[in-house]
Amino acid sequence: MWIVWRKKAILYGPVPLEAWSVSMRHPGIRFFYNRSNSGLPGQNVHAIALDGSGNMWFGTGGGLAKFDGTNWTVYSVSNSGLPDNSVYSMAIDGSGNKWIGTNRNLSRFDGTNWTIFNTSDSGLPNNTILSLAIDGSGNKWIGTFAGLAVYHEGGVVSTGMRRITERPCRTDLF
Questions:
Q1: Is residue 164 part of a domain?
Q2: What is the DSSP letter of 137?
Q3: Rounded-to-integer distance, Cα 80 and Cα 74, Å
Q4: Higher pLDDT, residue 15 or 133
């Protein structure tokens, strides 16, 4: 299990007997990762997600990082299609797409391509994306600075019960 605590990403789990003397002060804590001892692009870790291949994804104030257990890959404004380095939230859908909430918009990353959603092209109530969740039907629930939105595949974004585009949002979820 990964935990964010005091600006560190922590891998928490059973500790092998040989590591007991090192971990007595914090039983169960196996590793501390921060900017100085890892590939994390920022010290503050805001979001963590696990993909279907076992990679850990971290959203930080300095960008997005993927950790495969050995190597770190960093995605930032300067080296990828990530539109903003302040990553506040993240979720991974059933197809493996990474949904990334930043200070400036919502992004979808399929491993190669970046798709950007914002107030001017999608009906989002605000461009600051604070939280993300994906329900069993694949709907993306998007918590913004100005309220809640729901994204349905095909580009429909709804806020609350108000219909933004031609397809209504599901009322059985409210």
A1: yes
A2: T
A3: 9
A4: 133
CATH of the domain at 133: 2.130.10.10
7 plus 61 within the same structural domain: no
Q: Is the domain of 14 the same as that of 49?
A: no
What is the spatial distance between Cα 9 and Cα 33, in angstroms, rounded to a whole number?
Answer: 5
The end-to-end CA distance of the chain, in Å, is 31
Residues 66, 96: Cα–Cα separation, whole Å = 13
169 burial via Cβ count (<10 Å: 0-12, 13-18, 19+): buried
Domain of residue 154, residue span: 43-173
**Lookup: tokens for 26:** 């914090």
Q: Report the C-alpha gap between 57 and 50 in whole angstroms.
A: 6
- For the record, the structure tokens of 149 come out as 């939105």
Residue 38 within any structural domain of the chain: no
Nearest of 172, 142, 169 to residue 158 by alpha carbon:
169
What's the confidence (pLDDT) of residue 38? 78
Name the token pair of 98: 């990474």
CB 41 within 8 A of CB 65: yes
The token pair at 56 is: 């850990």
Residue 22: pLDDT over 50: no
